[in-house]
Amino acid sequence: GDSVTQMEGPVTLSEEAFLTINCTYTATGYPSLFWYVQYPGEGLQLLLKATKADDKGSNKGFEATYRKETTSFHLEKGSVQVSDSAVYFCARNSGSRLTFGEGTQLTVNP
Amino acid sequence: EPEVTQTPSHQVTQMGQEVILRCVPISNHLYFYWYRQILGQKVEFLVSFYNNEISEKSEIFDDQFSVERPDGSNFTLKIRSTKLEDSAMYFCASSEELEETQYFGPGTRLLVL
Fold first, then answer.
1. Half-sphere exposure of residue A53: CA atoms within 13 angstroms, side-chain side
2. Beta-carbon contacts of residue B11 (< 8 Å; ≥ 6 apart)
3. Cβ distance of B43 and A100 shorter than 8 Å
4. Which of A102, B45, B52, B80 counts the highest number of beta carbons within 10 A?
5. A100 part of contact set with chain B, CB < 8 Å
């Protein structure tokens, strides 16, 4: 079946550091790709998405580019803040379902 | 901004009891979903629902589970006889169309003792 793989976590960074969280997906069909974020004690919030190859999703300084050739959708941010501390989930759709990666816990220290 | 709401936020139940988790999807959305997240594990798809029917269900969604849209606003997940391994966070989601962005509620944390 379809799957999504994220880099192993947790990730700990200092404020203003550069962030990359890797995500790869199985290449069946033409999925849309998503990053969701889960802040402590809250539900899943859509962070950004891309619906076709070479699309770049962006929001709140985060970016991810849909790379069909490498089946990747890596999340990046140039300068993280303490408030970015959360769990980040990569996901792809497969029909009516979303398939999620394992989640990556990000902690940003001041 | 419209949002998906879920009640209760927390529920504790005894093994073998029935529980009903409630969700109010975004009002103009047509597709509804349930997911669960066992502590420390991935978010897993349970079921999708459209036009008063199940569209798709996962292998997790066995005969102990059922979903219903009892009125024009609520969407419920019922677990008939809870097991210890049903302890998880349950998320409801909705989307305007199939394969469009799914918007999630804050979740219900279910603890089965």
1. 8
2. B19, B21, B108, B109, B110, B111
3. yes
4. B45
5. yes
Q: What share of chain A is helix, strand, coil (3-state, %, to 5)?
A: 5, 55, 45
Q: Does A97 touch chain B (CB under 8 A)?
A: yes
CB contact under 8 A, B101 and A46: yes
Cβ <8 Å between A36 and B101? no
Q: Which residues of B8-84 form beta strands (DSSP E)? A: 10-13, 19-24, 31-37, 43-50, 53-57, 65-68, 75-79
Q: Is the CB of B91 less than 8 angstroms away from the CB of A32?
A: no
pLDDT tens-digit profile of A47-83? 999 999 999 999 999 999 999 999 999 999 999 999 9
Cα separation, A12 vs B27, whole angstroms:
39
Residues of chain A in contact with residue B102, where contact means CB-CB under 8 angstroms, are 46, 98
- Residues composing chain A: 110
**In this structure, are residues A1 and B44 in contact, taking their beta carbons and an 8 Å threshold?**
no
